[in-house]
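My current task is to audit a protein record that another person submitted. Please read both lines and tell me whether the tokens look consistent with the sequence. Do not assume that whoever made the record got everything right. I have pasted the whole thing underneath without changing anything:

===
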Amino acid sequence: MGNDTSNIRARRSATRAIAVLFWIGVWQAASMAVGSEFILAGPLDAARALVRLVPSPAFWEHISFSSLRIVGGTMASYALALALAALAWRSAAARILISPALTAIKSTPVACVVVVLLIWFGSMNVSAIAVFLMALPGVYFSVLKGLDDLDPKLVELFDIHHARRAVRLCALIWPGVLPYLVAASETVLSMSWKAGVAAELIGVPDGSIGERIYQAKLLLETADLFAWTIVVVAIAWVFERAALALIRASWPAAGRWAARRVAAESAAPAGTAALRANGLVVGYRGHAACAAVDLDLTRGDSLCLMGPSGAGKTTILCTVCGLTPALGGTLTVTDRTRWAAVFQEARLVDDLTAVENVTLFAAADADVRGLLSELLPEDALEVPVRELSGGQRRRVELVRAFAAPADIVLLDEPFGGLDRAAHDGALAFIVRHRNERILIVSTHDEGDAAALAAPTLRIG
């Protein structure tokens, strides 16, 4: 597989190289047909000009001048765009205020902006400000779209576990936003150099690349003009590739960094944890999912919810933990109760390993690797969980729930995808590690209630 991939990449690189050589040949042929270097310098003329320019200290001074301003303006735009997108995501009022301004900036031609900037700020930093304004809306709107489109099921997972801010940022928000940021960057990063040099061509600040291109045009140094254009294209390409590589490399590195952070609290359950419901009506959009239920659970209590699929068991679990509002009745949960859950469908951070997925939510004193080793083979602990089987992924979620510093653990059909041996092993794991937590389990298996010594509440 590795050799096949390498061969495919080699063929693609060779094809691209041939295409580039073809168009260089077309360029050279056109130059020879015109017969005048002043009208159309060929690639050989541009190459000779580059050989003459590159050794000059002034050449590198011009590149440094423009690079510092264009790269600086781009970085500043990214920083502000990320901050504004986060603010707009959190605040509807901020979104309403920000959107018209950035839409106007996005729609305004660069040339018009540069003229105004020259009047206000002069020519020396016009490229930095022009690049900043060009990149800002592109990054802002893409990042905001990524925030709006975060996986709601993963959001619920992080909410119910009260994930720490750093964990939420690095393992939920950043991977959700990253594809949108990469897509925007593929356009913005290359455009930043085009906008920056265009601004320099208008403002002609001394010492810039734009100033050298402008001078080459005035003096009819066509070969130099093409040479500087090649330099701009090359620098823009390198800048884009380096920046995109850095952005892409941030994940899953950010998630792994978050997983290595020390957990904020120990696993000791609160002694006063309690959950009580009287005539609790659960459902969606005003429609009850099942008959009203009564619950009275304190530390160490267990309860199994049983009933056919669609009877309302999942809705009860989502309601008691606050993910879904109740339609009626009363629900009382001890203040500052800590929750953990296994949902009916898999909810894992797929690019992280089993150890990292559990550590994100684990208590400070949890032996994550030891807990996982009780249910999974050693070779399953350090590979991305997307590579695990459905049953192995389910066991990772089970370990995560009991490694968390939770007072109440909700398990929604936690044994789905497990064969009998794995099912029995998971039950034994729960019994060993429940540690006086309140436990509510949704299941179809009568034997689960017996194994957990839990009373049964039949739904539907």
